[in-house]
Amino acid sequence: MTKEINDNQSISRRTIVQGAGALAGLATGFVVSLDANDAGAQTKMSHEVAKYQDSPKNGQECSTCTNLVPPDACRIIASPISPHGWCQFYVKKMG
């Protein structure tokens, strides 16, 4: 389905949805890339919001995540956390 725009150009719903998806992806990337050590850093997420648990999930645990700040802190989730815990924002360390 196509909608007419004031200057006689047309744009499809698919184009709008794709553009909104790209914008949401950029916004998510920006928020995740914020360094919690910056002076203007946001408040860290609660355990509940991050779906944090004190045990590993599918072989993933905080000790192998890029967001771990040893010994028991995280760049994006409120402390304390367990190095053997897990949350939905797990990102495996490279190397």
Characteristic key phrases:
95 residues, alpha+beta, High-Potential Iron-Sulfur Protein, Chain A, 2 domains, two-stranded antiparallel sheet, elongated
Largest sheet, strands/sense/barrel? 2 strands, antiparallel
The figure for the number of domains is: 2
Task: Classify the helix fraction into a percent range.
Answer: 25-40%
Discrete helix count: 2
What's this entry about, in short?
This protein has 95 residues and is of the alpha+beta class. Helix content is 26%, strand content 11%.
Give me the secondary-structure topology.
Layout: E1 2-4, E2 10-12, H1 13-33, H2 47-50, E3 68-69, E4 73-74
Antiparallel strand pairs: 1-2, 3-4
What does this entry look like structurally?
The chain has two helices and four strands, in the order ββααββ. With 95 residues, the chain is of the alpha+beta class. It has two domains: 33 residues; 55 residues, High-Potential Iron-Sulfur Protein, Chain A, CATH 4.10.490.10. The strands form two sheets. Strands 1-2 form a two-stranded antiparallel sheet.
